[in-house]
Predict the 3D structure of the following.
Amino acid sequence: MAKATQQAAVAAPQLSGGWPLLGHLRAFQKDPVEMLARGAHDLGELHQFRVGPQAFVLFAGPRAHTAYFKAPDEQLDARSVYQFTVPMFGRGVAYDVAPEIMSEQLGFLFPELRESAMERFARIMFEEIDMFAESLGEEGEIDLPVEMNRLTVNIASRCFLGEEVRNQVDAGFAAAYHDLQAGINTLGFFLPRLPTPAHRKRDRARQQVVDILSRVMEQRRLAGSEAQDFMSALMRARYKDGRALTNDEVSGILLTALFAGQHTSAVLSTWTGLQLFRASDYLERLRQEMQAVYGETGTMTSANLKAQPLMENAVRECERLHPPLIMLIRKVLKPMCYEGMSIPAGTLAIVSPAVSHRLPHVFANPDQFNPDRFAPPASEGKQHQFALIGFGGGRHRCMGKNFAIMQIKAIWTLLLDRFDFSLNGAFPDPNYGSWVTGPQRPCQIRYRRRAQAGAVRPAREVRMA
Ligand code: HEM
């Protein structure tokens, strides 16, 4: 267990190579993961660096993650770091309110993500992925990140926002949501309210999304109808003081969940596909597993998806190698101490899934794609609660993790059952220019429908049966 002592604390070691005034700005911009990995390799669990005037400290490895994730919000604060989301999610929700109110708001969604809701999600995923697969035809070429984005917007809008919003995806919702997403840029991170053309476009897009969502809420109220989705759950919810949520608050919380869950899922799904296309032996075993699970019924259910440990391990391995969020950031509000090293208030404290997941003393041969590392006897990642942190940890850990993993398993179960895929060109590098780290684009892949009938039957046939 890490000892935290206030006495005789020293500063964390400093990463070499910083420039006067700029600090490590250039290296950080060029390849943040390479820079942080060098620090973790040379300096161990904690090291500090500067980007311009801002001091940063990296917590690397499971023991240091424990101290990070267990620190209270009053010490390590997410809210001040994520202020750039306020113009997108709106006033009065998420990072615009005190942490205890944000948890009350997110808590309204928990019942909708419980185990029993997963069956409904599995059915929706099955139908949406089936429609997507049919839209591909017999063979062709696609830009995989673009298509995964399309598919996950359809799934998330239907599962979280409701059928009515799903039906408007192509009639304005997707375009407005896209413009809103484009509001996440470097300038917006530092000056989220600066009236630039991009920010004005973002604000207009938010209003369009809120208008669409508010109209659906009004229709539901007029019809006295309820649905099993986040929107109805939030419309029913009451704060501790008995107050109902306004349309704007409901929209803001829905946007928080959509932003947290959709693009991240699209990106992890993309990386999972890319890794599987070139892992021919593992792919063969996956198809045998699919045959064993779906051969009888052909139906995608949450129970069937759970009975696919090889697919589960492939997704976990891609979470390890390609975590969509390469850094989680908190502001140090109260000085902190770790293993005799002090971290002053004002520092930005980081954990980096991308760096920690490749520490060789935590994961053997860390650069190798080896999903079997998560199976017995190695069962890597189980040795420590905070070894695999692609979905965060502690009180701010991801609430949509089970949904996300199930979704990616569902996507690749059905698509690999119907098609053979291959990547055009070399395996892509990560694009660190975006808040969520996907592959460099374009990322073209070729596909061809498989001749033999697969194990998973088309959703339409299953419904008719
Ligand atoms: C592959 C997909 C996903 C990845 C990689 C991912 C990753 C993460 C990570 C790393 C965090 C912690 C952030 C931090 O500590 O600063 C987080 C938090 C969160 N995630 Fe996810 N997530 C995914 C999907 C989802 C989905 C589908 C939902 C939908 C409900 C969701 C909702 C949230 C929310 C609301 C939080 C904030 C929790 C809090 O601060 O209390 N995520 N996610």
Summary: The mean pLDDT is 93. The first strand starts at residue 10 and ends at 11.
